[in-house]
Design a protein that fits this description.
The chain is an alpha+beta fold. The protein has one helix at 68-89; strands at residues 31-36, 40-51, 56-67. The chain has a three-stranded antiparallel sheet.
Length: 110
């Protein structure tokens, strides 16, 4: 018995990304933190500015708040991009930190 092909997907609307005349705000971040509640998740971006045996200083730069649905979509997009990058460039390895820098390692399996 021949298989019926799946029905065609409905056409997707064209997404139009509009850049304001003053441009898009851009910043550098080498530190990320998270905070969440039942409704959404806040992604905090900062810059590690000092790391000594006495203290670690992070300058908080901006936070972005998204719904859990958007956070899941972002996680999927990041996984896809990371996988493609590592396929072309090899594994991304965290830098070796001095013993006195007690930062969490996002690459370490839990």
């Amino acid at each position: 018995m021949p298989e019926n092909p799946p029905p065609p997907s409905p056409p997707q609307p064209k997404v139009e990304a509009i850049t304001p005349p003053e441009g898009i705000y851009s910043l550098y971040s080498n530190h990320v933190g998270l905070a969440a509640n039942q409704s959404d998740i806040r992604i905090l971006f900062g810059e590690l500015t000092e790391a000594t045996p006495e203290k670690v200083r992070v300058m908080q730069r901006v936070h972005v708040i998204v719904s859990w649905l958007q956070a899941k979509a972002l996680a999927s997009l990041l996984q896809d991009y990371l996988a493609a990058f590592e396929k072309n460039n090899g594994p991304i390895m965290p830098p070796a930190l001095p013993a006195h820098v007690a930062l969490s390692n996002p690459f370490k399996p839990k």
